Amino acid sequence: MFLLIIMVKFERHILKNGLKVLIHEDDSTPMAALNLLYNVGAKDEQEDKTGFAHLFEHLMFGGSKNVKDFDAPIQMAGGESNAFTNNDVTNYYEIVPAENIETLLWLESDRMASLNINAKSLDIQRKVVVEEFNETCLNQPYGDAWHELMALAFKKHPYRWPTIGLIPEHIKEAQLEDVQNFYNQYYAPNNAIMVLAGNIKSQEILPLIEKWFGDIPPFNLNRKNIVSEPIQKEIRRKELVSEVPLDAIYMVFHIPSRSNNNYYTADLISDILGNGKSSRLHKNLRKKERLFADIDAYVTGTFDPGLLVIEGRLAEGVSHEEAEKKIWTVIDDLKKEEIADTELQKYRNKAVSALIFNNTNLLSRAMNLAFFECLGDAEELNFEQDKYYKVSTKAINKMANELLIPSNCSILTYQKKA
Fold first, then answer.
1. What are the structural domains of the chain?
2. N or C: which end of the chain has fewer CB within 10 A?
């Protein structure tokens, strides 16, 4: 077996204020990327104030003490920027020609130190986020699926609400003081990881980082205590009648956390079941028996134990009972005996190819380094490929029998309104 390892080299530095800095030099590109990850996501919110992490993703582009418009200087420097929030982190990223990297340091330091939070900017972004909530969750077929699934699968852990928030009223009623407190609690140098990647030199960029970030004071972090999710002991179900084009079924199973080596086994199980046209669910239930219009399987990959998801849109005339029964049949076939090594090797190669392709992109490398550093150690990025190749047919069989069972399963169904 030929194992290709793609190493992403970097230096790690920690400023006196606690800001972690990773520098990845790559002189094959004229560009430079900055990725700033804050260790705060939806799981860090209070149950009666959800959606705040996502709200802040928007507020951070609303201007700071010395910068009224965050995007304008980046565009003038020939670059672009964006951000995302999930259950675990909030991530901001930009890319510019390498000679303009100091522009990014100036912009990010200004909004870290002195974001302009006022009643006007809060009101504007509240409306934007509430409209996004309505558009993506309330006025779209299957838009409320993640609200329902997370609440079904999680009873104690804060993954039980999605990133956008539990209800729009939490954002509508957000007060300036609440928002300022959230900013003061999490948007600090000692709660952030900054990655600089591209055509830069460590000895030249470090003084600039110290110049722009060194004087920002750390905060006294008072992190929320995250409650572990109890082991699920019985199957959970919820049925919805909704304005959807096709009946649908979602089946979710609890799996290990992203930092657990067993995560890679769970990920390959999801690929074997539902990744691509040669996967077992697609081949048997869509192509052969024509029970589904489409069917897929994937994992959430969250910092804390997450979910393996099977979702499918049913073909016309197929009942939920028949669809579920057939999915269990495919699962049971996987559990009965070890799969052929050739089948596993195909999905191992597919997963590793995706990793290699992802790391050919400069900005993706910067994001991945920040992600793994937040998980515990950025160096782990360089061992992901090896972890996929180490998954054996026995490990697949063992985990499938342990996790793909009714007592570890929650099932959500959509029935089309007559």
1. 11-213 (3.30.830.10), 236-416 (3.30.830.10)
2. C
Taking every pair of Cα atoms in the chain, the longest distance, rounded to a whole number of angstroms, is 67
Supply the pTM of this predicted model: 0.95
106, 196, 212 from 200: Cα distances, Å: 16, 8, 17
H/E segment holding residue 202 = helix 202-213
Cα 267 to chain centroid, rounded? 14
pLDDT of 273 strictly over 90: yes
Residue 1: pLDDT band (50, 70, 90) is very low
Residue in this structure with the two tokens 């804060």, named with its chain if needed: 158
Report the DSSP beta bridge partners of residue 186: none
For residue range 344-393, list pLDDT tens digits in order: 999 999 999 999 999 999 999 999 999 999 999 999 999 999 999 999 99
Specify the residue for token string 């919805």.
240
What does the block give as tokens for 115? 């974001």
